[in-house]
Design brief:
This protein is 44% helix and 18% strand. By secondary structure, it is of the alpha+beta class.
Length: 295
């Protein structure tokens, strides 16, 4: 069961006493629990003690989910309630319960088309209304008219600095990545032509939630307005996506020449994030990407 003070807060939002609470696996950051009320209503609860979480981590996720929901391009769980302030013992996010199922061919195709539709939700500049998080790490989102500047200063540089400061990258590793950053304006110039798209921001296979309909919802976003290829680069990094997903996206919105090289540049960010979250086991893969880019 969840702690009594938390149960009372959540029950108040649901309007009924909680009679069942089942812990769920898969959460790397927070506790995850399926809750059911005395009237049969079911919801998904992410929670933890306030002292264990950066302020705003659940609020930022809620903001991303709400923005993605407004776009009506991909399915996401509805935000039911949120408690993420400095005055409570527990912080938590209550979401719509989406019964898990198994992905079918139509689901992958629909997800590919839906992602292309999501990416057609545009903004004049690259960034987001607030800093948010990638996993448990802070993610800067200052507005930039230039995508290469955004990618260099708001994505690669902060993760590089943290990894170097923690001793997870050598001085030589750092120099190689800093040299690579000098070429970002040339490598990513096409993004300024294509413009800023609404992104999921953390599109790996674990954030694709299969539904009983055979289709999927996207969960755990870290959204911002960026180059559309970032989501696709993340989707290819660790696998888990059916080829029909990529074919459907390509049919809906073909990728520009040079994508394969940009894909490596965008994957570099997520590998640096993994270095900082999980340690040196990801350093070789990170520097392997740097080598493939010629640095």
């Amino acid at each position: 069961m969840i702690p009594d003070p938390l149960a009372r807060e959540v029950a108040n939002e649901l309007g009924a006493e909680i009679t069942e609470a089942h812990a769920l696996g898969g959460g790397c950051i927070s506790n995850a629990t399926r809750v059911r009320t005395m009237y049969g209503a079911t919801a998904f609860l992410k929670w933890g003690r306030r002292r264990d979480f950066a302020p705003g981590i659940f609020a930022c996720e809620a903001h991303s989910l709400e923005t993605l929901a407004v776009a009506k391009a991909v399915r996401v769980p509805k935000v039911v309630a949120l408690r993420d302030d400095g005055n409570a013992e527990y912080c938590w996010l209550l979401l719509e319960w989406l019964e898990p199922g198994r992905m079918q061919q139509k689901g992958w195709e629909a997800l590919g088309r839906g992602l292309a539709t999501l990416h057609r939700v545009r903004q004049d500049e690259f960034g987001w209304r607030e800093p948010n998080f990638i996993g448990s790490l802070p993610q800067s989102n200052a507005w930039y008219a230039s995508w290469p500047r955004f990618w260099s200063t708001q994505r690669i540089a902060p993760q590089l600095e943290q990894a170097a400061r923690s001793g997870l990258l050598t001085a030589r590793d750092r120099k190689r990545i800093e040299s690579l950053l000098q070429s970002v304006p040339e490598m990513a110039a096409v993004a300024d032509q294509e413009g800023a798209s609404l992104l999921h921001g953390d599109l790996w296979g674990g954030n694709v939630h299969a539904l009983t309909t055979g289709e999927a919802a996207l969960i755990d976003p870290a959204s911002y307005y960026g180059h559309r290829e970032v989501d696709l680069a993340m989707a290819t990094l660790f696998g888990g996506f059916d080829a029909r997903f990529f074919a459907a996206y390509e049919e809906a919105w073909p990728l520009r020449e040079g994508y394969e090289r940009r894909r490596l540049l965008y994957q570099l960010y997520y590998l640096l994030v993994h270095v900082n979250l999980f340690g040196g086991a990801y350093t070789a893969g990170t520097m392997g990407i740097v080598s493939k880019l010629g640095y």
